[in-house]
Structure formats: structure tokens, C-alpha cells
Amino acid sequence: MIPRVLSIAGTDPTGGAGIQADLKSIAATGGYGMAVVTALVAQNTRGVRGVHVPPAGFLADQLAAVSDDVEIDAVKIGMLADATVAGVVSDWLRRCRPPVVVLDPVMVATSGDRLLDPDAERALRELIGHADLITPNIPELAVLAGASPASDWAGAVAQALAVSRRYRVLVLAKGGHLAGGPVRDALVDAAGGQAVVEFRGERLETHNTHGTGCSLSSAVATLRVRLGDWAPAVAAARDWLAESIAAGAELGVGGGNGPVHHLAGLWSRGGLRTRPRPARLAERWWQQVAELRRDIEALPFVRGLAEGDLDRAAFEWYLAQDSCYLRDYSRALAAASTLATEPSAQRFWADCAQGALVEEQRLHRALLGDRPRPPAAPSTTRYVDHLLATAARGDYRVLIAALLPCFWLYQNLGSRLAARSDAAHPYRAWLDAYGDAEFAAQNERAIDLVTTAAVEADEPTRDRMWRAFRASCEHEAAFFAAPLAARPAG
Ligand SMILES: Nc1ncnc2c1ncn2[C@@H]1O[C@H](COP(=O)(O)OP(=O)(O)O)[C@@H](O)[C@H]1O
Ligand SMILES: Cc1ncc(COP(=O)(O)O)c(N)n1
Questions:
Q1: Burial environment of residue 118 by CB neighbours within 10 A (0 to 12, 13 to 18, 19 or more)
Q2: Residue pLDDT, tens place only, 437-489
Q3: Which domains, from first to last, does the chain contain?
Q4: Which is deepest, 233, 343, 376, 486, by most CB within 10 Å?
Q5: Are the C-beta atoms of residues 135 and 102 closer than 8 Å to each other?
Q6: Which residue among 8, 11, 12 is best mutated to probe the pocket of ligand 2, counting the most ligand atoms within 8 A of its Cβ?
Q7: Pairing relation of β-strands 183-189 and 170-174?
Q8: What is the ipTM of this complex?
Q9: Closest-lying ligand to the alpha carbon of 78?
Q10: 209 counts as catalytic
Q11: Which residues of the chain have pLDDT under 70?
């Protein structure tokens, strides 16, 4: 389930605080972000220039528009601007309160500018009655405690306990404003036997702290839904925020207190490339071997097979090589089965390995009876060496990519030749074997397993898979060329 998280907050056109920061934080921590604007703020990383509060009725309309349509899992409340705004939000919460409500009691920006009228503090107190968790910084905690700002951590925790007791609310007291030492935050619950859960982290040397409070509170709201409890949600939110603060300077945004880089961790771990869909990748690989496929079809051997005028001895030489090939191909298929992690894939490759052996014995008996197998031709040896070396390297994904052309090229060629031939075609049995529905289904499955593994693989692995696939296609072409190249016809 993806948490649907609503931010009710003011704006920051530079994107570092307020609603803009909330939406990024919600997305970065795994939620779907929505936003209702309380106030438009003309601000940047240096400070606030002006605040415009839209009519209260319009705020109510925005809130109703969201809650009439969307099931909200969590709400984060930030800048409220004035008592009227706080009242509208209180009314709305009274009517439709989402399961998780986090209130960041924003009063003053990092820059020192007020974001809440002094006379609105009473309305804010009422709003706290609807919240599960409030996230005050040191000055905000002091206002709520009716005291002067704590000068040390013990004082902050004591104030948080008093606030938690007075408002019957869980308090996340943030120690970012206390100078020196590690940054400490504490989750304080006066109701739960005065429980205090403390979080410590390295204090990062940075000017990128604009919007840290906004970002933390929306991350906690989102993670509370995902993780089901407050302490793990705060711990995870702080870890995420720390890596985002650390990368903030990379953004080069503004000359004051810059924003945090909300997506730094995701970008570095996940990359920015879109993952191709398996079907799209199959199309691309097939296209990239189009020329090779045309070369195969132009070979005298394949043309002879198609027309039915292929020299019989050349065909039998080919079948004898095929019989040599199938024994080692079966070994490579069995290796894929051994390496597969998923049971149905393990079984698929094992079935194919067995099928290749059955086919080998059928060919051997039909062609040679009790006579010994002819030696493998160089083209056969090169092909199976490629497969067995790939198997020996032990990467399942690369191995199955190498195995795929023997399904795909044969199935494609076999089904098209079979469709064109009549019952009297001299090589009808061969065409039928590679053109039948069962082989087509096997081919589909093999394509699906390979391309699904390829889209899930990282870029270098996908590239190795492609190269192994292409090498096998080249070996297929050489294999089809050999009967008429290696020995004179007739
Ligand atoms: N320099 C810093 N290094 C690491 N974490 C920080 C730093 N400054 C703030 N934080 C963290 O950012 C969050 C917001 O903290 P704080 O600055 O106290 O609140 P606000 O942004 O509301 O003023 C807290 O989790 C705090 O621990
Ligand atoms: C709209 C809006 N809301 C909140 C803040 C506080 O920012 P910070 O998290 O840095 O205290 C801000 N600057 N602007």
C-alpha cells in the first residue's frame, strides 16, 4: 500500500521548504503526496518577503476537494499563517480526521521571519488537540511550554515532557538549534510513563538546513503509515534526512540557507534511467540482430531447406552436428536450471535440458543407428564452448541470454518455413519439430525469462547478457553456414 499523504502548508517558490519540500519528502520516503495551500509565501533561501493568505473559504474548498475524493492515510500540517486558517483546518479535522496527523507547529522560519501571527497561537493550541504528533524545534517548544528557549538538551526534553503532558500529544522535540555536539531529537510521550526515545546523529557542517523541519515532519507522517509505529518512523526519517542534508550543497540553490537534496539517496541508489519493459527489450534485441537473421536466411543451406532442394548428405551432416551440439547444449541448460533461483524457472530449464537429450538420442538413432557419433565440426565446438564457458562463469542471467538464440532463431525460422511448405516437403519432419506449438510456447517462456531478468539487472549485467545473446546468434549463423561450407555438397 502506498500511503496517501496530504500536506497542508505554505509555499516556498525556491522549492526547499513548505509544500514543495513536503511533496518531495513524501515521495522520497515512499508515499503519494497531495497538497493544500494555506498561504503563498514570497521567500527564498535568504528570507521571507511577503505572505499572501487566500480567502478562508477557498482553503475549506481545497480541503473538501481532496477529502471528498481521496482516502487520506496521513496528514502533515505546516505553516498556518493566522488564526482563521488554523480554525478552518481544525473544522476540517473535526469532520474527517485521517488516521495519522502530524503537526509541525511552524512559527518562525530558519531565517528568523514569523510565519504565524502571534495572536494565532491560541488557535494553534486548539489544533494540537487533533494531532497525534507535534514536531517543535527549540523556539517553538518554548512557546508551547510557555517558557524561554531551552539552552541545553536536558532542558529541551523537560519542556517536551511538559508540552506532551499539557496537550496530551506525542512530541518530537528537535535539537537542531542547540549549538555543538551531535544533533539530538527525542520522541516524548508523557502519557506512556514519561517515555522518551532519543535519537542521535552526527551534526553536519552545512548551510543547507532550509526546510529541514518541513521535510522531517512529512517524512515521519509517511513512514508512520508504512512502518506502523512512531519510533521506527522517526528513526527512518532521520536517516533519510541526514543523507539529504549531506547532499544539499550539490544542488547549488540560493545564496542563503540552501535546501536539502530530498532525492539524493534515491538518485544515487536507483539511478535515473527508466527501466525498459521486457517486451520492449525483446523487440530491441530482435531488431539488433536483424542483419544476422537476414544473413542466416540468405545462406544456401537455409534456402535449400526452404525450397526442399537441399542436398541430402548436407542435411544429414547438419543433423549429425546438431546431435553433437545438443548434448552440450543440454549441459548448459542443466546449468541454467542449477543456477535458477525461482522454482518454475529451475524446472523450465531442467525440462529443456531433458528435451534436448531426448531429441539428441532420436537424431542419433535415426541417423547413425549403432555407429559412433561423427566428430564435432569447428563451428559446433565454438558454439558449445561459448555456452559452456558462459555456464562456468556462473551468472544465471548471462547464461540464459546465451541459451536464448537456439530457441528464438530456430522457432522463428522453423515456423515460417513450415508455414510455407507442403506435406510433400522432403524435410517436413524437421520443419514440423521447430514449427510446432509446444516449441513456440517454450520459446515464449525463454524470451520472457531472459528479458525479465535483463530489465531487472543493472546496466553492466544487461550489457553482458546482450553480448552473450549476440554471440550465440553469430554461432547460430556459423552453424547454419557450416554444412555447405565445411564440406562439398553431394
Ligand atoms: N546540521 C545538522 N546536521 C544534521 N541534522 C540536522 C542538522 N540541523 C538540523 N538537523 C536535523 O533536522 C531536523 C530539523 O531540525 P531543526 O533544525 O531543529 O528544526 P526546524 O527545521 O524545524 O527548525 C532534525 O531532525 C534535526 O536533528
Ligand atoms: C511555507 C514555509 N513553511 C515552513 C517554513 C519553515 O522552514 P524550516 O523547516 O526551515 O523551519 C518555511 N520557511 N516556509
A1: exposed
A2: 899 999 999 999 999 999 999 889 999 999 999 999 999 999 999 999 855 44
A3: 4-269 (3.40.1190.20), 278-485 (1.20.910.10)
A4: 233
A5: yes
A6: 12
A7: antiparallel
A8: 0.97
A9: 2
A10: yes
A11: 486-490
